[in-house]
Amino acid sequence: MTAHIIDGKAIAADLRANIAGEVARLNAAHGLVPGIAVVLVGDNAASEVYVRNKTRAVADAGMRAIDRKLPASTGEAELLELIAALNADPSVNGILVQLPLPPQIDAQKVIAAIDPAKDVDGFHPLNVGRHASGLNGLVPCTPLGCILLAKTVHASLAGLEAVVIGRSNIVGKPVAQLLLSENATVTVAHSKTRDLPAVCRRADVLIAAIGRPEMIRGDWIKPGATVIDVGINRVAGEAGKSRIVGDVAFAEAAAVAGAITPVPGGVGPMTIACLLLNTLRAACAQKGLAAPIL
Ligand code: GUN
Fold this sequence. Notes:
Blueprint: E1 4-5, H1 8-30, E2 35-41, H2 45-60, E3 64-70, H3 76-88, E4 94-97, H4 107-113, H5 125-132, H6 141-153, E5 161-165, H7 172-181, E6 185-189, H8 196-200, E7 205-208, E8 226-229, E9 233-236, E10 242-245, H9 250-254, E11 259-260, H10 267-286
Parallel strand pairs: 1-11, 2-3, 2-4, 5-6, 5-7, 7-8, 8-11
Antiparallel strand pairs: 9-10
Helix pairs in contact: 1-10, 2-10, 6-7, 6-10
């Protein structure tokens, strides 16, 4: 069997085009241009690339990006002051503080300081709790992207066995919660899980978010399963160059799975598209406008 390759890049491009259309409509009808503040503290190379890609996508969708770059030496109080100013600014509909933050700053404190209505990352405890309680709120971008990709394969996830590997606040826990909202039967596996290959083999939908290059082997996959690979791992490649691989051994898994996301070009582009979607939703909610159906 050779798996269907889930083209995250194309699916994200479609979603971004729809969002851009909705932004243009909102601007024409209500003079609303959604704005998102993207805050980067320090000079983590990977974070710089992510932030550059995010701000470019925001502009491409017709929204306004407010870039705030702060030095690595920035203190917690100074960052909290910036967050307070962005919370109070009505032209800022979304606030994203790129993680990780330098060690002198308590990330959880910063996340909790963001106005939950502007929390386009969906990391604020109020949004986490709302989602866990089945209420409306902003949900994290990467998990939302995973669900949208899985739903390109399965019209409904109801009753499917879903296994999430990884229990981070950014991916594992929220994606498990979203799968539960979709009525899947959810198992969250992690580093202490016994016989992980056997647990994975139960999955109709397998979501890998561990951050370990190619850890999930072909014989861990149930034949015909849908595999969503969240991993972005840089490993040594040929001729002294590096390359990016996922958490799943792609060629082995693609020989067994029914559908699989590539790395790169799978979940990554969807994260950015979902950030745009969250920003649009946040802006509409703040202006008392109906949420766009996309
Ligand atoms: N660092 C890695 N992933 C993310 C994300 O989704 N949002 C933010 N703010 N930082 C991250």
